[in-house]
Amino acid sequence: MRASQDARFLRYFMCAAQHGSIRKASDELHIAAFTIDPQILQGECTLDTLLFKRLPAGLRLTVADDLLLPACNRWSRDMNTIRTQIAVSRV
Fold first, then answer.
1. Rg of the chain over CA atoms, in angstroms?
2. Residue 33 — φ and ψ, nearest 5°?
3. Which residue of 35, 42, 52, 88 has the fewest C-beta atoms within 10 A of its own C-beta?
């Protein structure tokens, strides 16, 4: 995956994990649901593991997410810190 694809995957994964649903994630992200699942599937392929159990009632995180979700949260905080630092340096 390229960096932009990685970032997209992480955003989609985090939102789907938070909501337990591709549809609810798509509503929050204001994108079509059919664009999220392929990104998550590609991430699963890249990591060679299932990240979600796909159930009729939605998504359930797998054990692999005990590692990935905290890393995603750190990435998100780091990106926000970097954005703030860049904005402050422009002043």
1. 14
2. -60, -35
3. 88
